[in-house]
Amino acid sequence: MSKKPKPATVDEKIRYMEEFIDLDKYLTENPNDSEKIIAYFKENHSRYRHLYNGKGNMHFIVSKDGKTFSYDDMYYQPDVAISYAKPGSKVLELGSGQGNNLMHLAKSHPDMEFYGMDLFPAELKEKPANLTIRKQNYTSMPDIPDNTFDVVYAIETVVYNNSEMKDKLMAEVRRVLKPGGHFLVWDYATAYPFETYSREVQTALTICAHGGAYAQVETWEEWKGHYDGAGFKTVAINDLTDLCMPDVTRMQKHFDLVMAHPLRAKIIFRTMPRNYTVNLIAGWIAYNLVKEHVGNYMEWIMQK
Question: Are 299 and 235 in contact (CB under 8 A)?
Answer without folding.
Answer: no
